[in-house]
Structure formats: structure tokens, C-alpha cells
Write a structure and sequence with these properties.
Largest sheet of chain B: none
Radius of gyration of chain B: 23 Å
Number of strands of chain B: 0
Number of strands of chain A: 0
Oligomer: heterodimer
Shape of chain A: globular
Structural class of chain B: mainly alpha
Largest interface: A-B, 42 and 55 residues
Structural class of chain A: mainly alpha
Radius of gyration of chain A: 16 Å
Helix content of chain A: 55-70%
Shape of chain B: elongated
Distance between the termini of chain B: 51 Å
Helix content of chain B: 55-70%
Strand content of chain A: under 5%
């Protein structure tokens, strides 16, 4: 992490923040809302805050969002096609 | 039944059934989880540079099995606020991410990455100094860095300091820190949160307002 990002994280630090487990519980709902009504309409500030602070949870959320979006659009690759991407 | 045709209720019923219905549902779920694991792997191929193709595919199978067990163990936690499959994918992605990071960091000593010298800390901070330096700004920036260094060295607990140095300065992934310290994500996140709070409080107590700090490091808000 560079110092700018770290300062941003310090700046965004709240007295109370949700844990990674709480984040995990909420992400599937968040992703579906994001893909339905758009991210700016979602009122889940504690989850957003955690995702901004925690790169592990953020990466899982981004992967889930992309996977579900592709699935909804019928664009997700099959198991065989995904296997073929492994070198 | 086609997996895409199952409602949440049908998934739950089938996965809890005690006949062939359950076997079919578990088979379908396994395929979906396997696809989610492969999806993650395909986006993170650099993590597997040391592995042959068959080893990567075996790892994907192992993650799938772990995810399937996790889903079945947590099935009573599913509240129905998303599709069942969206909820289940989280377990596959979580197992895949942990496996990928473990592979990438295999053989690297995290103990050595738990410490940072004062000089290295200053060097890290100065990489992002303002592109338009002035003597006033450089002086303030140096003061901010000095406060951060002082808090890290004197106000954090030993564990907070080690976790902060590993994750912030040396970019060790969360799950590798978790494995190294034999703990869990929640505990590591709490340590980092406490460390950030101390840093924020100390910077404010010494008169550094956030907007001022961000401008020093040229962050657009």
C-alpha cells in the first residue's frame, strides 16, 4: 500500500467498524442490490466502509460482483472454457 | 432439475433431503462452486506461477470441496436476502483467494517482513510526496511522517505494529498474516483498525487536519 492510500484509510477510519465476518454476511445482498438498483442507491455505509479498508474482503466482493453480473448476462464461461484458461 | 431453475426454497429443500434429490443438488452445487473457483483462479494466474496445470486444477478441486463443506455447514445461516447461489459463491471465492495467496507467498519468511527501520519508513512515505514541493509543504509532510513513525514505534502494541508493517508497508495479504499469526481475519482487522484509530487521533491531537494531510500527499478527495 502506498502512503497516500494509507493516509486515506486513516482519514476514513471510524470509531466503530464492522468485522470481516459481518462483511462476509452482507456481501451477497450488497452485490445483488448493486446489480439491480445501482451502487449509489444502496444504504449500507458500514459495509462500504469496510470494503474500502479491507483489501481481502474487497477482492472477494469484486470477484462475486463480476461473477454474478456475467451469470445474469449469460456471459459466464463454462467450467471447460475456464479450465482452458489455465496454462 | 436445471440449477438455474431452482428457487432458494428448492435449493434448501434438496440439499437437506435424504434421498437422491440431495445427491443431485450437491452435484449441481459442486459444479457451480467449481466454476466460481476457476473464475477466481483465471483472474489470478500470476499467483500460480510455480504450479503445473494439473496441480492448479487439483487445487481448484480441493478449494471446491472445502467450499462445499463450508456451505453445507453454514446452510442454516442463509437468510434468503440474496439468491442461494450468490450466497454460496462467497465460500468458493473465499477458499480460492486463500489458496491463491498461499501459493504466491509460499516459501517467503513473513517474520522478516514484520519489521521496518525508521529510514525505510521515511523512504516509503516520501515516495508519495507532493509533486509540487515547497519548503513549507515539505516541512509539514516531514512532520506528518514523524508523527506516524512515532505512533508506530511507541504507541502501538507489538502485535498491532507487526500486523501494520506486514500489511501496509510490505503488502502481505490478510490471509497470510492470519496464517502466520495463527489467528483469524476478524482479529487482524481489529488490530489494524485500532492502529488506524491511534494514528488518526494522534495526528489530530498534534494539529494535523485530514484535509491538510491529504493535500500534502496530493490526494484528490
Amino acid at each position: 500500500m502506498n502512503s497516500k492510500s494509507f493516509l486515506q484509510n486513516i482519514h476514513n477510519t471510524q470509531d466503530e467498524e464492522i468485522s470481516c465476518s459481518e462483511c462476509f454476511d452482507l456481501t451477497s445482498q450488497f452485490v445483488e442490490l448493486e446489480l439491480t438498483i445501482g451502487i449509489h442507491e444502496i444504504k449500507m455505509p458500514h459495509l462500504r466502509q469496510h470494503l474500502n479498508q479491507c483489501s481481502a474482503c474487497r477482492e472477494e466482493y469484486e470477484t462475486l460482483r463480476d461473477l454474478v453480473r456475467l451469470e445474469n448476462e449469460g456471459e459466464i464461461l463454462s467450467v471447460d472454457d475456464l479450465k482452458n484458461l489455465i496454462p | 432439475m436445471m440449477t438455474s431453475m431452482r428457487t432458494n426454497e428448492e435449493w434448501l429443500y434438496a440439499l437437506r433431503a435424504s434421498d437422491g434429490t440431495q445427491d443431485a443438488a450437491i452435484g449441481d452445487l459442486r459444479n457451480l462452486l467449481f466454476r466460481a473457483v476457476l473464475f477466481f483462479f483465471s483472474r489470478n494466474l500470476a499467483d500460480f506461477r510455480g504450479l503445473a496445470r494439473n496441480e492448479i486444477l487439483q487445487l481448484a478441486e480441493d478449494c471446491t470441496q472445502e467450499a462445499l463443506i463450508a456451505v453445507m455447514n453454514h446452510i442454516s445461516d442463509f437468510r434468503g436476502d440474496s439468491k442461494f447461489t450468490t450466497w454460496a459463491y462467497k465460500f468458493a471465492i473465499n477458499k480460492a483467494l486463500m489458496a491463491a495467496r498461499r501459493e504466491r507467498w509460499k516459501g517467503i519468511s513473513l517474520e522478516a517482513l514484520s519489521f521496518i527501520s525508521s529510514d525505510a519508513l521515511v523512504e516509503w512515505a516520501m515516495q508519495d510526496r507532493s509533486p509540487v514541493p515547497s519548503s513549507d509543504r515539505s516541512m509539514m509532510q516531514a512532520e506528518v511522517i514523524e508523527v506516524i513513525r512515532d505512533v508506530i514505534e511507541h504507541e502501538l502494541t507489538e502485535k498491532q505494529r507487526r500486523v501494520l508493517i506486514m500489511m501496509v508497508f510490505n503488502e502481505v495479504p490478510m490471509d497470510e498474516v492470519v496464517r502466520h499469526l495463527g489467528t483469524n481475519r476478524n482479529a487482524i482487522y481489529k488490530m489494524l483498525h485500532d492502529a488506524r484509530r491511534k494514528l488518526k487521533t494522534s495526528l489530530q491531537a498534534r494539529g494535523f487536519e485530514v484535509a491538510e494531510m491529504l493535500a500534502l500527499f496530493s490526494i484528490s478527495r
